[in-house]
Design a protein that fits this description.
The chain is about 65% helix and about 0% strand. With about 450 residues, it is mainly α. It folds into two domains: about 325 residues, no CATH class; about 90 residues, no CATH class. Helix 11 crosses helix 12. This is Glycosyltransferase RgtA/B/C/D-like domain-containing protein.
Length: about 450
């Protein structure tokens, strides 16, 4: 409770970026579109006017969920006489990068809060080997449903978490159930967004196709699929196909007008064109996707790779969303240092997650091991989804996998010390990520420092 109150005081009344401003505008109007999650705008609409209005109600919500999740897990560990592990959990919660982002009202931080609170509910009972009460289970499902609807790719985290905790024990059955669950939930989410919440269609589902088709065509304009040769040459000449993000392809003064013809196509024909392009140009597609994966995992990139550091103030807006005091900006300076260290690299956390899975699989079933394995499965499946479904490199997309990996690693250490072989193997794996990443940050040219420079 003290940490929660301190966090609220630090970031009050919440930091809001461009996405949050757009969502708050929809919340005020009561009319939603699906480019941003309508469930969040709808909830904001319902809560607007509480605790001072503006971003404050959503800040309170995500901070309460964040600290409730961490607190439940830390409290359970302390009750089970793993006090050092409990302290480690609270230290992870207080990392400047994680807490700094939680002070920003975004769909990603709403997802993180909901996922953590659900994990805290599961952990409160499952870590003791106790059966989950019905009401607690309902609360956890509501939280996971919100997390799934508030972030379009959260389904790759929520479904594996539930399957690993409550599904069959055989791995092939878990894999089949996870895949089927993801497909089913994706369809259900669309029905809820458009049928229940009545969100207007924005065409957001087509951006992945625009991004991948343009990147493939730019590598060989003479063999372009989906784009004409002239369109592909323009994308190449203007450097609009970037590993970092898709934005130049949708910007009016860059390549937005070039792809205007494609905007007349629905998602079905676009993805059929993309499938044809992948089949005919697999190397170009793989080169593009691996380049983006490296960018979003923030591995072989220059120092100061953009979109990692949480902002210290709200963007200027005409709808009354204010900024916190100067202490928040000073905290985000710490977050900037954190982001430059391996603790801020998704690639390093992914390497740790894979090693932790190996450790967990070598242990017999037990409460700590099973909860840790569920967290790791959720983290790794979500990270794996970025291989084919991702159009931007913002670090906030990786908050849940990074936090889930940290919690799972602590649980495995709390259960039993890792063997010398496991420690050595993990150290080697992390070194293989950290050493090249550090060298890249020392020798590569400086990264762009503004959005306009990123577009060029």
């Amino acid at each position: 409770m003290l940490l929660l109150l301190g966090s609220l005081a630090l970031f009050w009344p919440g930091i809001v970026t461009y996405d949050g401003i757009a969502q708050f505008g929809q919340a005020l109007a009561g009319h939603f579109e699906d480019w941003h999650p309508p469930i969040m705008a709808g909830l904001w609409h319902a809560l607007h006017g509480l605790v001072g209005g503006g971003a404050a109600p959503m800040l309170v919500l995500q901070m309460v969920l964040y600290w409730a999740g961490f607190g439940a897990i830390a409290g359970t560990l302390a009750r089970e006489e793993r006090r050092h592990a409990a302290v480690a959990v609270l230290c992870i919660a207080g990392l400047p990068l994680f807490l700094g982002w939680q002070g920003v009202v975004l769909k990603d931080t709403q997802m993180l809060g909901a996922m953590l609170a659900a994990a805290g509910i599961f952990g409160w009972w499952r870590l003791r080997g106790a059966r989950l009460p019905v009401l607690a289970g309902v609360a956890a499902i509501v939280l996971l449903a919100y997390a799934t609807l508030v972030r379009s790719n959260a389904v790759f985290a929520t479904v594996p978490l539930v399957v690993m905790l409550f599904g069959p024990t055989r791995w092939w059955a878990r894999a089949v159930l996870t895949l089927a669950g993801i497909v089913a939930v994706l369809g259900l989410a669309q029905a809820i967004n458009h049928g229940v919440l009545r969100a207007a269609a924005s065409g957001v589902e087509r951006t992945e196709a625009f991004y991948d088709l343009s990147a493939i065509a730019a590598q060989d304009p003479a063999q372009a699929i989906g784009l004409t040769r002239a369109e592909a040459r323009t994308v190449l000449a203007r450097h609009c196909a970037k590993p970092f993000f898709w934005d130049p392809l949708g910007t009016a003064d860059r390549c937005g007008p070039t792809l205007e013809r494609l905007h007349g196509l629905t998602a079905g024909p676009l993805y059929r064109l993309l499938a044809e392009a992948i089949v005919r140009h697999p190397l170009a597609y793989a080169t593009h996707r691996l380049g983006h994966l490296n960018s979003t995992e923030r591995w072989i990139v220059p120092a100061g790779w953009p979109s990692a550091v949480p902002p210290g103030a709200s963007e200027a807006n005409p709808i009354g969303l204010h900024s916190p005091g100067p202490a928040a900006s000073r905290w985000q300076v710490l977050a900037r240092w954190n982001a430059e260290l391996p603790l801020g690299w998704p690639a390093a956390w992914l390497a740790l997650a894979v090693c932790a899975i190996v450790v967990a699989l070598r242990r017999p079933p037990a409460p700590f091991r099973d909860v840790a394995l569920a967290l790791l499965g959720s983290a790794v499946v979500l990270e794996a989804s970025f291989t084919v479904l991702s159009i931007a490199s913002d670090l906030r997309y990786h908050l849940w996998p990074m936090v889930a990996t940290a919690l799972a690693t602590i649980l495995l250490w709390a259960q039993a010390r890792w063997s010398r072989r496991a420690v050595l193997g993990t150290g080697v794996a992390l070194a293989l990520v950290i050493v090249p990443g550090t060298v890249a940050r020392l020798i590569l040219p400086a990264a762009p420092t503004s959005y306009a420079a990123l577009l060029r």
